[in-house]
TrEMBL record:
Record keyword Iron present: no
Matches recorded under PANTHER family: MEMBRANE-ASSOCIATED PROTEASE-RELATED (PTHR39430), PROTEASE (PTHR39430:SF1)
Name assigned to this protein: CAAX prenyl protease 2/Lysostaphin resistance protein A-like domain-containing protein
Source taxonomy: Bacteria, Bacillati, Actinomycetota, Actinomycetes, Kitasatosporales
Source species: Streptomyces griseomycini
Annotated GO MF terms: endopeptidase activity
Length: 292
């Protein structure tokens, strides 16, 4: 997209060079994995902060803007293609990921209910308004978080230290990022790191597709919200009211289902075959060796 003219003459972007030579150094820093990761996270994070809690379709518009920022950073700053965000096959990937996310949460909630941890009653709220709010908010959250953690952080760290280190670091950081949520504690942070950080990271390494991971993430959060279960400590309006009984290890307590042992065990069980498939498909990259 415009790369021919960019290579023929100075576009004035400052990434390659400027008249006193300082732009060349800045360009090299920006094009390094940590450089484009930080620039991308700043841009996507800013868009998310401005739109995540906006009225009506604003979170969805914010997700679209975040994708545009991501594409710009990848193509113009990192100077790499972004096949992980390609429109071709996106609908199929979203549906596949969404099916896995839906099944993951429904089975987890069913198991907790079977062990006496949850009981559900119809809330009687407006069906369409509740569903609409959940869908638009969770689209914004799923897309922006996956661009930040899997699209930018995981891929940049993978270039530096390989896939294994990247998934460990991004999983831990994902858990730490949720420690500020209501009802969070050390266990909930570890649970998020294992069930979400590892599962979503494994899903990306397997499919190498942001749409797949965003679909999984979206279905996960939306199903939780509609069931009336707190989503990472936040309790937005749902279609049901859930009563919690018994041990917080089983139910997740006030933090919600994600702090339950059930989805932790299920998340790891789903992530392992994804990682095996990623390894077989060549999706697990080793640490980049410095040239001698």
């Amino acid at each position: 997209m415009g790369t021919t003219s960019a290579t023929q003459h100075d576009t004035g972007s400052g990434l390659d060079k400027d008249r006193d030579g300082r732009g060349g150094c800045f360009g090299r820093i920006a094009r390094s994995p940590l450089g484009w990761m930080l620039m991308g996270m700043a841009g996507v994070g800013l868009v998310s902060g401005l739109t995540a809690t906006g009225p009506g379709p604003v979170p969805v518009l914010g997700a679209a803007a975040a994708v545009a920022v991501y594409c710009y950073v990848m193509r113009r700053v990192a100077r790499r293609s972004a096949p992980e965000i390609a429109r071709s096959g996106a609908a199929r990937e979203v549906l596949l990921g969404g099916g896995i996310g839906l099944g993951f949460i429904l089975v987890s909630a069913l198991l907790i209910t079977a062990f006496g941890g949850y009981s559900f009653t119809w809330a009687g709220n407006g069906f369409l308004s509740v569903v609409w709010t959940a869908v638009v908010v969770q689209i914004g959250a799923a897309v922006t978080e996956e661009l930040l953690f899997r699209g930018l952080a995981l891929q940049a760290l993978e270039q530096l230290w390989g896939s294994r280190a990247a998934i460990v670091i991004t999983s831990l950081f994902f858990g730490v990022a949720h420690l500020g949520a209501p009802g969070a504690n050390a266990w909930s942070g570890l649970a998020i790191a294992l069930e979400a950080g590892v599962l979503l990271g494994a899903a990306f390494l397997w499919r190498r597709n942001i749409w797949f991971v965003a679909g999984l993430h979206f279905a996960w959060n939306t199903t939780e919200q509609l069931l009336g279960i707190p989503v990472s400590g936040h309790a937005p309006e749902g279609l049901f009211t859930v009563d919690v009984h018994g041990s917080a290890l089983l139910t997740g307590g006030s933090f919600g289902l994600e702090a339950s042992i059930m989805p932790v065990l299920m998340g790891v069980a789903i992530a392992v075959p994804m990682l095996v498939r990623a390894h077989r498909n060549g999706g697990i990259k080793t640490r980049r060796r410095a040239p001698r």
